[in-house]
Amino acid sequence: MVALAALPLRMSVDEFLAWAPASSERYQLVDGVPHAMAPDGRTHGKLQAELARVIGNHLVATGAPCDVFTDPGVVPRLLADHNLRVPDLAVACSAFDREEHALTDPVLIVEILSPSNQPATWANVWAYTSIPSVQEILVLRSDRIAATLMRRDPEGEWPERPAEITDGVLELSSIGFSVELSGLYARTRLQRP
Questions:
Q1: What are the structural domains, with CATH classification, of the chain?
Q2: What is the pTM of this model?
Q3: Does residue 148 have a pLDDT over 70?
C-alpha cells in the first residue's frame, strides 16, 4: 500500500485506479489529487438508497436498457486524464463487455448535498456538465426537502439557472421517471413529525 504523502504531486486516472490507499476511506481524483470522501450521514445515505431503489425499480418495470449505479466513478471531459469524480448515483444506458471503473456514458448524475460538502459537490456538478452523454444532473438536499435540477435543452446547452424544486413531482426526462419529491424523504428525519 502506498501512503498519500508518497504519491506524485499529480496522479493520472490510471495511477489513481492502481493506487491502494492504506485506509478504508473512499477517494475521488480532483485535478490529479486524491481527495478523501467523508462517510455519509444517515439522511444522505437514506436518500441515496431510496432514490437508487425507486429508479432501479422503474428501469426494470419499463424494460429500459439502463442501470442505476451507486458511487460510480465518472470522468469529466475537462482534464480527463486527471479527474475521476464519484457522484452518489448515476444512470447509464449502454451495455459493457469488460469491467469498468468509471461509467463512460452516464445520462443522469445525482449528488446529495450535505451542509459539510457543498463546495466539493458543486465543483463536481460543474465538472459533470462537461460529459457529453449527461442529460440531467440532480442535486438533492439532505438538510431540507428540496432539489436542484439541471437539464440540457434540445440544442445540448445547460440552462442559465437550474430549476429549484421544493414540492410536487420531480421529473427526470432522461430516464422517463417521475416521483413525488416528498416521497423520497418519507422515511427520513426531515419528513417525520
A1: 39-184 (3.90.1570.10)
A2: 0.85
A3: yes
